[in-house]
């Protein structure tokens, strides 16, 4: 492993400080930082769990309505693009914004990197980093040929081969391919581009989808202080990471903590039906995230129990918000949701002749809208006279006595 220079500060924490004035949700800045470190590791570091080897390869999608801070991806692009190897020269290969399967394969084939191992032998790999603020530009339609390539490369197999009918190269063989993707997408993209059966494919289990509903409120007149020195330090650390090579070791109780979580059922388990095929990847995601935490925290390949616990915090918080993506995909207006709520409360009253409890109201609304909007929808329903509370339960008001604009 390369010798690191100077005292090491957590790189993810440094990125969060560097971007603290950006109008991007905290969870987006965090996962942009995770993707940045994972991408910088490329296919040079790995962690082993039993017979399985995991490289820190991620397909991370930041999902939000328009104007909710997905541009943080461009900060990562800039840092990746400007990073230099300790010996000089560009450290990473950045993919084009818009590609076909053939052009992406060609770019990956050309992205050759060689690192010395213990000063004796050499290791050659082909790594592409793909920061796409507008993921739709990269994948404008559900292109099965590109999707099959993404599925294939994510597995970090030893060799990827392509046979072509056209062009000068009839057969391409890429040794040690690797692709890290950090993209931004709107919920509506999934509605128009992903058929229902798409959620049962291998691609979905390889994505980690990060959802945010709104950007933080920032003072529009506040000027950002000069952070050139902080950026220079980030670039230096990324450069040092670009020289790290080797297998990470599990220290202390780190492996025990991850094994015990897995063997006890992996709680909290995502329950949304569209996450059924995502769930089998959770253990591997935690291995990768633990490795990223260790590299970010210490600049070394030693995974501590603290890294496993931090990885769990990261992943479980992301998973908690994933169902909100599918609720946001419905595209229904608040007015439609309020009308459906009135129908629900009226039907329950007609069926039971009893009011509807808070837990049922909350569950119904939460199935229709992102969690951040549940309280607001219920409040509007009460204020507009759609329903009212009596003896601790909700009753419907006849439709001719209320109106929702």
Unreliable stretches, pLDDT < 50, 5 or more residues? none
At the fold tier of CATH, the topology name of the largest domain is Rossmann fold
Percentage beta strand: 15-25%
Shape: elongated
CATH architecture label of the largest domain: 3-Layer(aba) Sandwich
Distance from N terminus to C terminus (CA atoms, Å) equals 64 Å
Write up this protein.
The protein is an alpha/beta fold and 405 residues long. 43% of the residues lie in helices and 17% in strands. The chain has two domains: 11-328, Rossmann fold (3-Layer(aba) Sandwich); 334-401, Winged helix-like DNA-binding domain superfamily/Winged helix DNA-binding domain (Arc Repressor Mutant, subunit A, Orthogonal Bundle), CATH 1.10.10.10. The strands form four sheets. It has a five-stranded mixed β-sheet. Strands 2-1-10-11 form a four-stranded mixed β-sheet. β4 (112-117) and β5 (121-132) form a beta hairpin. The protein starts with 10 loop residues before the first helix and ends in a 9-residue tail after the last strand. The mean pLDDT is 88.
